[in-house]
Automatic annotation (TrEMBL):
<protein>
    <submittedName>
        <fullName>Cupin</fullName>
    </submittedName>
</protein>
<dbReference type="InterPro" id="IPR052535">
    <property type="entry name" value="Bacilysin_H2HPP_isomerase"/>
</dbReference>
<dbReference type="InterPro" id="IPR013096">
    <property type="entry name" value="Cupin_2"/>
</dbReference>
<dbReference type="Pfam" id="PF07883">
    <property type="entry name" value="Cupin_2"/>
</dbReference>
<dbReference type="InterPro" id="IPR011051">
    <property type="entry name" value="RmlC_Cupin_sf"/>
</dbReference>
<feature type="domain" description="Cupin type-2">
    <location>
        <begin position="39"/>
        <end position="97"/>
    </location>
</feature>
<dbReference type="InterPro" id="IPR014710">
    <property type="entry name" value="RmlC-like_jellyroll"/>
</dbReference>
Length: 124
């Protein structure tokens, strides 16, 4: 990330990371307490079922998604927000091409190291 100083980061110059399966992400900002990530989905892209100890709040920037959280399915679209408690099994399928802003607490160290599981398929 482009640092303006030790405290401030500008994300506009950061490249999108291709995750595979029609999904790309860009880190918007983080420290050890919190992380914000922008995630783009092609229509039909799937975030496979997974769980993690992080608290997650997601804002739907554009598109339409079906989220399943702890066995409950819900359709969300631009302007909606989703809260996911730690350790709940959740997934999402993109019904109309779109973009999400995911915020995690604490920071997703696995995202930074690249050692975490892939929720999106093979990188292409």
């Amino acid at each position: 990330m482009k640092r303006v100083s030790e405290k401030y980061i500008i994300a506009k110059d950061i490249e999108w990371e291709v995750l595979g399966g029609g999904v790309s992400r860009k880190f918007l900002g983080y420290d050890n307490q919190i992380m914000m990530v922008s995630v783009k989905f092609d229509k039909g892209a799937l975030g496979s079922p997974h769980q993690h100890f992080h608290t997650q709040a997601t804002y739907v920037v554009s598109g339409k998604f079906e989220f399943e959280i702890d066995g409950v399915k819900q359709i969300v679209e631009a302007g909606d927000g989703v809260y996911i408690e730690p350790n709940l099994l959740h997934s999402a399928i993109c019904l109309e091409e779109g973009q999400l802003i995911d915020t995690f607490s604490p920071v997703r160290e696995d995202f930074l190291t690249g050692n975490g599981p892939s929720y999106f398929g093979d990188k292409k």
